[in-house]
Amino acid sequence: MKNKFKVTGHVKYLDFEGGFWGIVSKDGKEYRPVSMPNQLKHDGEAVEVTVRPVEEGMSIHMWGEPVKVIAFHTIGGG
């Protein structure tokens, strides 16, 4: 089983290939949750997520590393 790790960055909605949600880390790395939690579906939201890499079969989305979100929370903004 692949190791989980934390990513701090922001949520991004990408309006191509049918539209999908991603997370861009502070260092610019792109992650594509295979099932984005509804609570995180806010474009531009600052987040910290714990993810685990996943093996994906065929996908139309040619963007980011596919990951499974294990835990998450939003950062600041209040």
Protein traits:
single chain; 78 residues; mainly beta; OB fold (Dihydrolipoamide Acetyltransferase, E2P); five-stranded mixed beta barrel; 5 strands; 0% helix; globular
The order of strands across the largest sheet is: 1-2-3-5-4
Number of helices: 0
Count of individual beta strands: 5
CATH class identity: Mainly Beta
Query: How much of the residues is beta strand, in percent?
Result: over 45%
Assign an overall shape.
globular
CATH topology: OB fold (Dihydrolipoamide Acetyltransferase, E2P)
How many domain regions?
1
Order of helices and strands: EEEEE
Known CATH architecture: Beta Barrel
Helix fraction, binned, reads under 10%
Radius of gyration: 12 Å
Low-confidence stretches: none
Biggest pleated sheet = 5 strands, mixed, barrel
